[in-house]
Design a protein that fits this description.
Layout: H1 25-40, H2 55-65, E1 77-82, H3 85-106, H4 109-115, H5 126-129, E2 132-139, E3 141-143, E4 149-151, H6 155-172, E5 176-177, H7 186-191, E6 198-207, H8 223-226
Antiparallel strand pairs: 1-2, 2-6, 3-4, 5-6
Helix pairs in contact: 2-6
């Protein structure tokens, strides 16, 4: 059953029971190991096939992202699914204009040196080759229908978690993705005609890797390099 969400600002705490079935330890270990192995295969893809993808799989991944925790349960995100080729062309043109300025010096030498092993440049074919783009917007504040506003809390953290869950769901559905963050990104609000309370957070092309797709030869940090147990 679908229910309509409304802001719960100022409402009294109304607890409800939560009794999920406890997973047996053996099953938990197997599930965790399987997820770890599958996610270790995830790579950021910049060379996409133009083949269509199952739209419902993308919608389900966005629904998964929408289950992310958020500050005061305000869910400060909007996901814009862009399928229209003309709109994707406009986004690519605007993004490449910003990227040309960035790669020409706006990023600075240190940032350009950090990017060099990834093989990136100002040409962004993934924005038009991938059959779909998910443009993620932060809702910096809640905008009432009458124009009044209400503060949102922990917006960056909340939307960042949601994007991580989105990338995970897309990968587990057999789809490839890229987190693209052209800077500045104001053009996305203009191209997609978003309201004044929304600020672009990331552009995520979604599709299948191209037949000739290559990725950088990278090594992830090992668990003992990222984990501290106290």
């Amino acid at each position: 059953m679908t229910t309509n969400w409304t802001p719960n600002h100022g409402q009294a705490f109304a607890p409800v029971p939560y009794r999920p079935e406890r997973m047996p330890a053996e099953q938990s270990l197997h599930t965790a190991a399987d997820l770890r192995a599958r996610m270790d295969e995830r790579r950021t893809v910049r060379m996409f096939s133009t083949d269509p993808v199952p739209e419902q799989a993308v919608l389900d991944a966005i629904a998964v992202a929408s289950t992310a925790p958020s500050g005061a349960h305000q869910q400060p995100w909007t996901f814009v699914l862009v399928k229209n080729p003309e709109v994707r062309e406009r986004i690519r043109a605007a993004a490449e204009e910003e990227e040309r300025i960035s790669y020409a010096g706006r990023l600075g030498d240190e940032w350009l040196d950090a990017l060099r092993p990834l093989g990136t440049d100002d040409v962004k074919p993934h924005l038009t080759d991938a059959p779909a783009l998910i443009v993620v917007f932060q809702q910096r504040f809640y905008l009432e229908p009458d124009g009044t506003t209400r503060k949102h809390y922990y917006v960056d953290e909340s939307v960042g978690i949601a994007v991580g869950m989105l990338l995970t769901a897309l990968h587990l559905a057999g789809l490839a993705a890229l987190t693209h963050t052209p800077s500045p990104m104001k053009f996305l609000s203009e191209v997609l005609d978003r309201p004044r309370n929304e600020k672009a957070f990331a552009v995520i092309p979604v599709g299948y890797p191209a037949d000739d797709c290559v990725v950088p030869d990278l090594v992830r940090k090992s668990l003992d390099q990222v984990l501290v147990v106290v």
